[in-house]
C-alpha cells in the first residue's frame, strides 16, 4: 500500500474510466490483505468529491455512486482484480517456498534430495518433470572454483529433474556435467562446447588441437615401398610372407603389426554377412583382443577382460569389458574399455557415460595416492570394427576434461594401408598413456619413501586431492 498518495486528484482524473476501478487499487498499491482498507479509502475519496462544488461532473458521478451504495465495488472489474491478486499471491507464496529449497549441490546425496524428498527412494519411479509444475521450476546456479565447471554443472543440475524424459546423449552430458567432466569430444549442438562463450570455445579448440607425445609402435612394414605397392595391388600373399619374415627379429613393439596377419589369413571374417552373426565376445576374441594384447606385450601391464569391477576406495561397482592394470590385487585401472557388437547410438552414449563414471573414480584414486594431477586415464570405446580412444584428466581445480585422442578402425581391404596406420597410432596412444601413468605412479611411491628431507627441511607441497570432486552416479531409476 502506498504510504502517501493523492487519491482525490487521481480519482478526479480517472473516474470516467470504469469508475476508477481497479486503477484506484493498483495505483494505491493495496494488497489483498488490505482490501477492506482499500475499499474504505475509495468510499472516503468519493465522499470528498461529492462535497466538492468546484467539480460539477465529478460531483454528480460521486453522488450517484453513493446512492448506488458503491455498487462499482461489487462489479466484475473489482472482483476480477481481487481474484487475480489472490492467485498471484498464492503463486508468489509457492515460488518463495521453492526458492527456500534452493541449495548448492556438492555431492550425490544433495542430488538425491531432488529425487527422493520425503517419500523415500520409491519416489524416483515417478516422473519428476510431471511432479513439478513448469511454473515452479527454478534456475539453480552452481558455484564451482572453475568457470567451465560452474557452467556444465549448472546446466546438468537444471536438466536433472527431467532426465528420464531425455535421450541417452542428453543423459550422457548430464552425467558428465554432474561429475564436472567437460566433454570436448562432441561438437554437435547441445554439447558442452555450445554452452560456452565464443572465446571459451576457441580456447578449448586450441587446447584439444595440440596432440600429446607418445611412443610410436613399429610400423616399418607399412613404410616399405614394396609393401605399399603390394597393398595398392591387394597382393595379400606377398604381404603375409613379408610379415612372417620379420618374426625372427621382432621386438615387443612389432607385435601389434604382426598380429594383423590374421586379417590376411582369414578375410572371410570381414564379410558383412559374417560380421552380422558375430556376438560381442566374437568381435573381441577374433579382432580386438589379439591386437590389444599385443599392444601391451613387454610392458608389464595386465589386460583384464570380461565384466570385472575396478579396485579402489572410491569405486562405482560397474563391470567393465576391459581394464588395463599394473597388479592383480590392489591396482587401480590405467585404462578402461567398453565393447559393442555393432555401432549403435544408444549403446554408444550409454557406454561412454559408463566409462566417464568409472574412469573418474579410478583417476580420483590414483591422484589421491600420487598427488600428481598430470596423470591421465585412457578410455577405449569400441563398436564393431570402429574404435574411439579418449583420455580423462584433471585439468584444473574442480574440472576434469574428456578429450578424443584417436578414432580408428580395424583395417578394411579397400583402405588397408591407411587403416593400419591409424590403428597402430591408436594402439600407440593407448599404450603410451598407460605406461606414462604407471611411471608417474611408481615415481610417486618412491618419493613418498624418501622421507629424510622432511627431517631437516620444510617441504611444501600442494594437496591436489583438494582439486578432486566425488563421483556422481545417476539414481537407480535413471542409470
Description:
With 479 residues, this protein is an alpha/beta fold. It has 3 domains: 7-100, no CATH class; 108-208, no CATH class; 220-478, no CATH class. Helices cover 48% and strands 12% of the residues. Helix 1 packs across helix 3 and helix 3 (35-50) crosses helix 4. It is elongated.
Keywords, please?
48% helix, alpha/beta, 479 residues
In short:
The chain is of the alpha/beta class. The chain has helices at 7-14, 23-28, 35-50, 56-67, 76-100, 108-116, 128-131, 147-159, 168-178, 198-208, 220-223, 225-232, 236-245, 255-259, 261-265, 272-275, 280-295, 345-370, 416-449, 453-456, and strands at residues 181-183, 302-309, 319-325, 333-340, 376-383, 386-396, 399-409.
| Helical content (DSSP H or I, runs of 4+) | 40-55%
Distance between the termini: 52 Å
Largest sheet: 7 strands, mixed
Structural class: alpha/beta
Question: How many beta-strand elements?
Answer: 7
Taking all Cα atoms into account, the compactness measure Rg is 35 Å
| Number of DSSP helical runs | 20
Low-confidence stretches: 98-136
Spatial strand order of the main sheet: 1-7-6-5-4-3-2
Mean pLDDT rating: 79
Number of domains: 3
Portion in beta strands: 5-15%
Order of helices and strands: HHHHHHHHHEHHHHHHHHEEEHEEEHH
- Label the overall shape: elongated
How are the SSEs placed, and which strands pair?
Elements (H helix, E strand, L loop, with lengths): L6 H8 L8 H6 L6 H16 L5 H12 L8 H25 L7 H9 L11 H4 L15 H13 L8 H11 L2 E3 L14 H11 L11 H4 L1 H8 L3 H10 L9 H5 L1 H5 L6 H4 L4 H16 L6 E8 L9 E7 L7 E8 L4 H26 L5 E8 L2 E11 L2 E11 L6 H34 L3 H4 L23
Parallel strand pairs: 1-7, 4-5
Antiparallel strand pairs: 2-3, 3-4, 5-6, 6-7
Helix pairs in contact: 1-3, 3-4, 8-9, 9-18
Amino acid at each position: 500500500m502506498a504510504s502517501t498518495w493523492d487519491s482525490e486528484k487521481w480519482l478526479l482524473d480517472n473516474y470516467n474510466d470504469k469508475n476508477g476501478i481497479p486503477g484506484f487499487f493498483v495505483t494505491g498499491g493495496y494488497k489483498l490483505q488490505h482490501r477492506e482498507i482499500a475499499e474504505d479509502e475509495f468510499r472516503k475519496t468519493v465522499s470528498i468529491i461529492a462535497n466538492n462544488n468546484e467539480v460539477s461532473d465529478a460531483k454528480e458521478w460521486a453522488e450517484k455512486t453513493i446512492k448506488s451504495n458503491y455498487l462499482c465495488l461489487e462489479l466484475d472489474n473489482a472482483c476480477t482484480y481481487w481474484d487475480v491478486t489472490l492467485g498471484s499471491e498464492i503463486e508468489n507464496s509457492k515460488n518463495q517456498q521453492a526458492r527456500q529449497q534452493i541449495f548448492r549441490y556438492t555431492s550425490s546425496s544433495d542430488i538425491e534430495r531432488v529425487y527422493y524428498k520425503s517419500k523415500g527412494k520409491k519416489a524416483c519411479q515417478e516422473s519428476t518433470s510431471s511432479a513439478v509444475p513448469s511454473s515452479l521450476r527454478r534456475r539453480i546456479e552452481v558455484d564451482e572454483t572453475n568457470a567451465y565447471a560452474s557452467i556444465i554443472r549448472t546446466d546438468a543440475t537444471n536438466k536433472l529433474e527431467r532426465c528420464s524424459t531425455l535421450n541417452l546423449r542428453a543423459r550422457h552430458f548430464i552425467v558428465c556435467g554432474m561429475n564436472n567432466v567437460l566433454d570436448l569430444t562432441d561438437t554437435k549442438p547441445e554439447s558442452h562446447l555450445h554452452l560456452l562463450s565464443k572465446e571459451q570455445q576457441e580456447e578449448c579448440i586450441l587446447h584439444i588441437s595440440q596432440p600429446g607425445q607418445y611412443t610410436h609402435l613399429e610400423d616399418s612394414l607399412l613404410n616399405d615401398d614394396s609393401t605399399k605397392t603390394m597393398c595398392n595391388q591387394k597382393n595379400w600373399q606377398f604381404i603375409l610372407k613379408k610379415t612372417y619374415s620379420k618374426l625372427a627379429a621382432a621386438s615387443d613393439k612389432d607385435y601389434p603389426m604382426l598380429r594383423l596377419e590374421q586379417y590376411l589369413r582369414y578375410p572371410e571374417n570381414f564379410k558383412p554377412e559374417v560380421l552380422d552373426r558375430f556376438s560381442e565376445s566374437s568381435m573381441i576374441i577374433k579382432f580386438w583382443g589379439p591386437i590389444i594384447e599385443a599392444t601391451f606385450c613387454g610392458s608389464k601391464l595386465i589386460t583384464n577382460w570380461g565384466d570385472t569391477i575396478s579396485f579402489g576406495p572410491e569405486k562405482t561397482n560397474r563391470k567393465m569389458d576391459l581394464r588395463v592394470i599394473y597388479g592383480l590385487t590392489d591396482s587401480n585401472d590405467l585404462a578402461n574399455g567398453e565393447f559393442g557388437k555393432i555401432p549403435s547410438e544408444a549403446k554408444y552414449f550409454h557406454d561412454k557415460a559408463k566409462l566417464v563414471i568409472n574412469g573418474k573414480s579410478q583417476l580420483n584414486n590414483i591422484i589421491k595416492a600420487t598427488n600428481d594431477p598430470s596423470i591421465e586415464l585412457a578410455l577405449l570405446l569400441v563398436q564393431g570394427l570402429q574404435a574411439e580412444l579418449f583420455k580423462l584428466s584433471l585439468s584444473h581445480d574442480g574440472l576434469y576434461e574428456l578429450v578424443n585422442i584417436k578414432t580408428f578402425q580395424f583395417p578394411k581391404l579397400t583402405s588397408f594401408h591407411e587403416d593400419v596406420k591409424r590403428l597402430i597410432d591408436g594402439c600407440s596412444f593407448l599404450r603410451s598413456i598407460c605406461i606414462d601413468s604407471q611411471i608417474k605412479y611408481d615415481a610417486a611411491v618412491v618419493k613418498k619413501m624418501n622421507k629424510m628431507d622432511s627431517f631437516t627441511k620444510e617441504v611444501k607441497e600442494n594437496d591436489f586431492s583438494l582439486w578432486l570432486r566425488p563421483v556422481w552416479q545417476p539414481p537407480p531409476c535413471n542409470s
